[in-house]
Amino acid sequence: MGPEGLGALPGLGLAVFLGLLVGIERGWQARESEEGARTAGIRTFALTGLLGGLTGLLVDSLDAPVLLGLAFLAVALFLGFALQQRWQRYADAGATTLVAALVVFLLGALAALGRPVEAAAGAVVTTVLLSLKPTLHGWLRRLEDRELHAALKLLVISVVLLPLLPDQGYGPWGSLNPYNLWWLVVLIAGLGFAGYVAMRVVGPGRGLLVTGLLGGVVSSTAVTLQLSRIAPRGEGLYTVAAGAIVIACTTMFPRMAVEIGIVHPGLLWQAALPLGLVTAAGVAGAVWLWWRRRGDSVPGEAPRLTNPMELGPALQFAGLLAAVTLLAEAARRWLGDAGLYALAAASGIADVDAITLSLAGMAREDLSGEVAVRAMLLAALVNTVVKGAMAAAVGGAALGRRVAVPFAAMAIAGLAGLFLI
User: For the DUF4010 domain, which residue ranges apply (predicted)?
Assistant: First the structure.
């Protein structure tokens, strides 16, 4: 065998290995089936990968790309015939194994054509997806039609509506840009919907801490209110509910970091330290409460949250965002930095997203990054204090005492962050 032939061996070996990898997963899934009942097993997948590799070598040596298409068609027809025979005998028409075999054929060709990284990555992704069948089906069973409709709404407002809006400033100082405002609405709706779906998928059986964490991505205020109502139902619930409230409120700070990073990536470097300090304090407080919980029983009741993709809340947030954007520009022009700080503190009583997005957009133009981050952090700290007061008012003094220490630690970390910016 000449040097050129030896050079082809690694590609062929990888093609066979990738087929074996996918074939092992398929064989394991069908390990209880009787002999001959499987459409394709380990050997079939290994040979399919080898066939793809050999086809790739022929395509490369003959410079005839059409051979790959013809070979792919032949493999597809053969496997389709095998699938039909299986259906007639076992009344099982699942096409997953057929598609996986076709993918293996193409991955084998990629490996032989000098694309080993892409081929290996494709095989790993294919194997993972195949192995996740029970998990993925379980997620689908937990989701309802309203979640699907919400996802479609998100696509409509982002893919269809957003490109139609004018990308220019209107109103005083040209501060209201319909395209930018609606893009930020899409961003917040997308983040909230992701958290909502994650919480629905995980389900209440994971406990209050997990659902509090995921629910905090949607609305930490709603989670705080609901958990504060749950806590008085039993003496042992106070500490667990307090930990869930703290972790839900802590998610606000990483969420702010995501918003800043998307709107104005350069500002994230200035915001990373103070937001990181508060997040660390919040996580430490939640862990502390977790270790102090009474008994091993963790209640599984999930906070009830509204779907963030409802049109009404999205329009309300758009109006709030427009108002905060206009007020922020007016405060900066008329009152300077002090006006922005006052507006941020007032905004933080009800919402943090609007002021965070507005200030990040202004920092992208001509606002000092230091002022923007301090104002955002001030709004977040005020919001945290409000949630602590809400927990004490709704859940009683017992719950208020438990959240007081972690929230105080978060406030101290935030104040330290203000001086470190």
Answer: 186-395
Answer whether residue 165 is part of any domain: no
Is residue 90, in this structure, part of any structural domain at all? yes
Position 167 in a domain: no
Q: What is the predicted pLDDT for the residue at 70?
A: 86
Burial label, 144 (beta-carbon count in 10 A; 0-12, 13-18, 19+) = exposed
Are 114 and 210 contained in the same domain? no
pLDDT grade for 205, boundaries at 50, 70 and 90: very low
Residue 299's pLDDT is 47
Q: Which domain holds residue 76?
A: 3-131
* Residue 10, in any domain of the structure: yes
**pLDDT tens digits along 304-313:** 555 555 666 6
Query: Mapping DSSP to helix (H, G, I), strand (E, B) and coil, where does residue 83 land?
Result: helix
Rounded to the nearest 5 degrees, what angle is found at the Cα of 138, between the Cα atoms of 149 and 23? 120
Does pTM top 0.70 for this prediction?
Answer: no
User: CA-CA distance, 162 to 352, in Å (whole number)?
Assistant: 23
Q: How far is CA 250 from CA 209, 210, 284, 285, 348, in A?
A: 12, 13, 10, 10, 15
Cα separation, 34 vs 135, in Å, equals: 25
Distance CA 369, CA 269 (A): 10
